[in-house]
Amino acid sequence: MKTIAIVLFVLTYALLLSFPKVRAYIAVASASIFVILGILPLSKVFTTVDWNVILMIAGTMGIVSLFIESKMPSLLADIIIEKTPNVKWAIVSLALFAGFISAFVDNVATVLMVAPVALNIAKKLKISPVQSIIAIAISSNLQGAATLVGDTTSILLGGYANLNFLDFFFFQGKIGMFWVVQAAAIASTFVLLYLFRKFMQPVIALERTVVKDFFPSVLLVGMVLLLILASFLPNMPRTINGIICMSLFVIGLIRNYFKTKDINVFSRALKEIDFFTILLLAGLFVVVGGITEAGVVDDISKIFVKVSKDNIFVVYTLIVWASVIFSAFIDNIPYVATMLPVASGIAAILGIEPYILYFGLLSGATLGGNLTPIGASANITALGILRKDGYEVSAWDFMKISIPFTLVAVTVGYVMIWFIWGI
Fold this sequence. Notes:
Layout: H1 2-18, H2 23-36, H3 45-48, H4 51-69, H5 72-82, H6 87-102, H7 107-125, H8 130-143, H9 152-161, E1 170-171, E2 174-175, H10 177-195, H11 215-232, H12 240-260, H13 264-271, H14 275-293, H15 296-308, H16 312-327, H17 332-350, H18 355-368, H19 377-388, H20 395-422
């Protein structure tokens, strides 16, 4: 059975890479085969899927769609632009703003919010928006690792390691991933300032966006506050974070219905939820559960330990930089879903707590996607926006900005995580 599980897993990954447009269906089909062949017992399928993660993603996507619709992000961006003296600082400020938003909102949604502002500025100043929108995309990816709800990979880690919202800020008496990411963001900001040092044209203030509905902003802030509150309450159900996110989304939908008396608000909101990603994750949970049941994850863990010769620093280094390289070319969602059990297995063999490996994995996989135009969904979205506006961006044009930004950010995170958790 182990050999069959390995072959099926490798085939699944190959198909996921080859046919990204149907990867959700590939994952579900592979999961079904694992169950049909008896590699993963049918009785374990329901418990193998992390419903907290599924509910969190669906609820967060729904709340974010309402938040974007309210135009509050555009207003905030307009206010920031008013305070900037020139194009260099406008680009960097928009990137930092996108990063801040992305710590609480999906990266792709963040790019969709902020990129139109960058396009508007570029048109008024008659300059190319390419550099600005690339900076927005890669900054969004960076901050996705900062909080529990920042990115799908963070939600995956939170679900697997049973981390709550506050654990990303302070964990076991030490500073958490949020502060590591902020240090990386500060370092990478200097990279952006250097890259855009020649963009000294003055900025013309834009007309402020008008926000007519502040309730979605209340929902988003409420979600963060309730996730923090749930961190303090004992004996909460394992799906509490998902319940919070979904409940607030439903409240937003019901309120929209009573406000507009339009039954279509439900269908429009549901269309904003990325069911493709949710289906992909559900399938991957079962696939990873299958290879774990077959003992494949234990074998992979032993290979890592053998290569490193039981040296924790070497294992940590391998996980971080291998994650950077792999995530530059493949989607980091299936990669992280696969590697979390491997990191746990390695820690068990070495007799250490797994958190340094978890955080190293999250850092490398989340930031590594920034290296190439295809490494992260936010990058693909950003280039799609530019293409629609008539700008074709080559891989080299993208990587001239992304490579120095990513290497500096990853190196800072790599060093900090080791000194916080490895020594």
